Here is the input.
Amino acid sequence: MKHGSFKIVCLIMWACITVFSTYGDDVSVDWETKVLETFNGDSEYTWRTEASKFSTKTDQITYPQTTYVSSWPIAAFGNNLDGSRGELKSLGIHGRFDRRGYNWIDVYPTRGDNTPAEIPIPGRVTLLDMWVWGANLNYYIEVFIRDYNGVVHTLKLGDIDYAGWKNLRVNIPTSVPQSKRVLPRYAGLTFVKFRIWTQPTEKVNDFYVYFKQFKALTDVFETMFDGNELADPQRVQDIWANVSN
Here is the structure.
């Protein structure tokens, strides 16, 4: 091997060792599936909608509307005739626009006084998925997530130009940061909202979309080290809360 090539190989090996030792949590993994929202109507979140400017408004109704329905994907939950899975429901969105175009409907969680509330996603997320009922309309859905720097990333969850229930999923790009070099290394994501988009060639005068069980495939492994508790944000806050000047 030539001397120059040997140096390049050594540099590559050194870089790999440095990365693995610095970000050890990215090597050891403990995969878990976390349900972020069941859409049964009994969670801590109230789901609201907001639409672009051509959404239909009448004297009686302002669109979009939302409600919970006693229907769900049988492929995922079975018929549930014996009630073994509890009371199953799905979130329904009823939309209508006055004209075709790139119209959108945002579906987002709120708490208490209807203030938007972002849902924390535990661990380092690899994939998000949700069951969506489509009416064979040429629409698609995006999911918005926020990283620890406050940057919102928009990911396409999938097209809904099919009939009935289908599981839609999206991988989280490696470009979305979920860890830091300094302690604490963990820097989780939060879910912000879904956005339903209509295409200009598709009808928009009356349509329905249904959501069921929003989940994350996530790595919950965290490396332990001597003094680990001093990198826990809550522990640090408790320690320094009553320190006087």
Q: What stands out?
A: The CA atoms of residues 230 and 237 lie 10 Å apart.
